[in-house]
Amino acid sequence: MKNLDDFVQNYLDNFSNQLKEMSKVKRDGYVEEIKDHLYSFVQDKREQGYTQNEIIQKLEEDFNSPEKLANEILFANNKRFSRKVKSSLILAFTLIILSLPIFVPKLGVLPLSILFFVYSFIVFTKKNISGFFVIKKNNFRIKDRNKVAKIGGIYLFIIGLVLWLDHFFASTNLFIIVIVLFLVFSFFIQKTIIEK
């Protein structure tokens, strides 16, 4: 007959050992959270009249192994880390593109228009809409994220196109066109896609 407390402690020790690559503070936080879940589960089963062996069997059936659970947590943390790396790369790419006219003045606003084309593609295909001011302000009230991504991609493409064709516009007119596009986009999103 297995001892229930030993089983739970063994589970937590194995789980903690699997998370060795994490900082102690983070690892201890996850161990405490799992410990709470396990003891809450055990308490519920005791109240339902389960024996110690039956509770251990239910724990083995209902909970992932410590190895599997730790791997899922490590994967999720690595995914968050890779998002940070990706964001850093995008920022570096943006800064490089924006600094090109400093070194090659003949380029004018061409690098900026290319940047808008690239972001347009990212928004349209990856459905990444978090960079829009109007979205950040109302993130949880968006009705249709796909529609926002399509409209946002088109909006960014049009701005890129306007910038690319800057030689047809005076700089004041270019500025006004970009402001009007921003206002139309923001107003449209506010009125049609964000829930009240």
Structural features, described:
This protein is mainly α. 78% of the residues lie in helices and 0% in strands. The chain is built from eight helices and no strands. The N and C termini lie far apart (59 Å). The relative contact order is 0.07.
Topology as a string of helices (H) and strands (E) = HHHHHHHH
**Number of β-strand runs:** 0
Please describe the biggest sheet, giving its number of strands, its sense, and whether it closes into a barrel: none
Strand content: under 5%
Which class do the helix and strand fractions yield?
mainly alpha
Ends apart, CA distance between termini: 59 Å
Round the Cα radius of gyration to an integer and report it.
Answer: 27 Å
Helicity level, as a percent range?
Answer: over 70%
The parts where pLDDT drops under 50 for at least 5 residues are: none
How many structural domains can be distinguished in the coordinates? 2
- Average pLDDT value? 82
Principal-axes shape call: elongated
Count of helical regions: 8
Concise synopsis of the structure shown:
The chain is mostly helical and 196 residues long. The protein has eight helices and no strands. It is 78% helix and 0% strand.
